[in-house]
Write a structure and sequence with these properties.
Alpha-Beta Plaits; 3 domains; six-stranded parallel β-sheet; 15 helices; Rossmann fold; 37% helix; 24% strand; Dihydrodipicolinate Reductase, domain 2
Length: 440
């Protein structure tokens, strides 16, 4: 049978891994796909380096549009990244009738609705397993494995850089800045780590998972995004004392009034499996009505783990290459009559309407009546306190840390209470607030 011909746009870390794994496991992949899958063309600005990776049998060019224009290419693999030229090339590949495989979570989180609509209209597939959690097959699980279920929530550690930083802060008691430098030295963090440490990368991935889980459009602009830059080692220690660990989670949750879509640090009970995911590993929990709770764990980045997901997409596209487009798995899981009708009209809730519980750390004057003032504000706001931990002031100290865990309340109510507490003369520093997720 005629091989499926693949063109790679970019042959960096993931592209070279994809080429290597395809070559190494060629026989097994062919048996699974039903026909050979061959990379026959590569576009990369560094043509000499690219040619050295793929050898003389593969044509290397410096213009991605030559790959798209080649009538022999069946699948275009976009590994350039970013929102700019990558979007243009993906849309041009779709317009040319090519199937597309991409690992570009930023592109899909921001422009996915437009891209999927174009692919639906043209009758081609856009596959993106590698865009979320690297080698973990979470997209396939949400789209296919859990298709019998009404999904209630998805919560994941979906950025390895931040998980490595938080693990090192907990294990070694180091400050955030020191561990960030270590992560950069080890190659876990970029020279400019903003997308990772500010939660943007995780929010891109959470946006995609939410769209698949709940059948809503990709809406990155409506996600609440908070990173880990303000976390302090003392908060990680206090969390441990209270039986929790701090993780940066991407969360999407179905409620009666809409969809929650948020990324922020969370206190997670230490007994939860996901709380024990350490280093640069990723994990995603899914709660669904029929199956209950499932957990997906593995490497979220790296050359061959991500290549594993890219090749899984290549196999899927190869299997369905000649199938009626209406009988393929829909891009966002829900089968439309027309593309617009696939989308649910459930709104993404603003953060002020989200209900969760909280960890609060207040630096307060060590004097009588302080706790009564603070609990009085909580009582007035009808916010219930779960636990209080007060560090004993050292000899000669006139201030101390007061740690409070609350029960669930709406974020807007907590914002008002924190504003009142911050005005107290006995509260001596900005209040630290970290949300708490029990993940029951």
């Amino acid at each position: 049978m005629k091989p499926i011909q693949v063109g790679l746009l970019g042959i960096g870390t993931v592209g070279s891994g994809t080429f290597e794994v395809l070559k190494r496991n060629q026989e097994e992949i062919q048996r699974r796909a039903g026909r050979p899958i061959q990379v026959t063309m590569v576009a990369d600005l560094d043509t000499a380096r690219a040619q050295a990776i793929v050898g003389s049998a593969v044509k290397v060019v410096n213009d991605a549009r030559q790959v798209i224009a080649n009538p022999e290419i069946d699948i275009v693999v976009e590994l350039i990244g970013g929102y700019g030229i990558a979007k243009q090339l993906v849309l041009e590949a779709i317009a040319a009738g090519k199937h597309v495989v991409t690992a570009n979570k930023a592109l899909l989180a921001v422009h996915g609705t437009e891209i999927f609509a174009a692919a639906h209209k043209k009758g081609v597939m856009v596959a993106f397993e590698a865009a979320v959690a690297g080698g973990i097959p979470i997209i396939k699980a949400l789209r296919e494995g859990l298709s019998a279920n009404r999904i209630q929530w998805v919560a994941g550690i979906i950025n390895g850089t931040t998980n490595f930083i938080l693990s090192e802060m907990r294990d070694k008691g180091l400050a955030f800045g020191d561990v960030l430098k270590q992560a950069q030295a080890l190659g876990y963090a970029e020279a400019d780590p903003t997308f990772d440490i500010e939660g943007v990368d995780a929010a891109h991935k959470a946006t995609i998972m939410a769209a698949i889980a709940f059948g809503v459009p990709v809406q990155f602009d409506k996600a609440y995004v908070e990173g880990i830059t303000k976390l302090e080692a003392q908060d990680i220690r206090y969390a441990e004392q209270l039986g929790y660990r701090i993780k940066l989670l991407g969360i999407s949750k179905r409620t009666a009034t809409g969809i929650e879509l948020r990324v922020h640090p969370c206190l997670v009970p230490a007994k939860r499996l996901i709380a024990n995911v350490e280093g640069a590993m990723n994990a995603v929990m899914v709660q669904a009505d029929a199956v209950g709770t499932t957990l997906y764990y593995g490497k979220g980045a790296g050359s061959e783990p991500t290549a594993s997901a890219v090749i899984a997409d290549l196999v899927d596209v190869t299997r369905l290459h000649t199938a009626d487009p209406l009988n393929r798995v829909p891009h966002l899981a829900f089968q439309p009559d027309t593309f617009d009708q696939a989308m649910s009209n459930l709104p993404v809730l603003p953060m002020e309407q989200v209900v969760t519980s909280y960890y609060l750390r207040l630096r307060v004057a060590d004097q009588a009546g302080v706790l009564a003032q603070i609990t009085g504000i909580f009582a007035q706001a009808a916010i219930s306190i779960d636990a209080v931990l007060q560090r004993e002031a050292g000899e000669g100290e006139n201030q101390t840390d007061l740690i409070i865990l609350t029960h669930d309340c709406v974020e807007a109510k907590m914002n008002q209470a924190l504003a009142q507490m911050q005005q107290l003369s006995t509260v001596l520093a900005p209040i630290t607030r970290i949300r708490k997720e029990e993940l029951n």
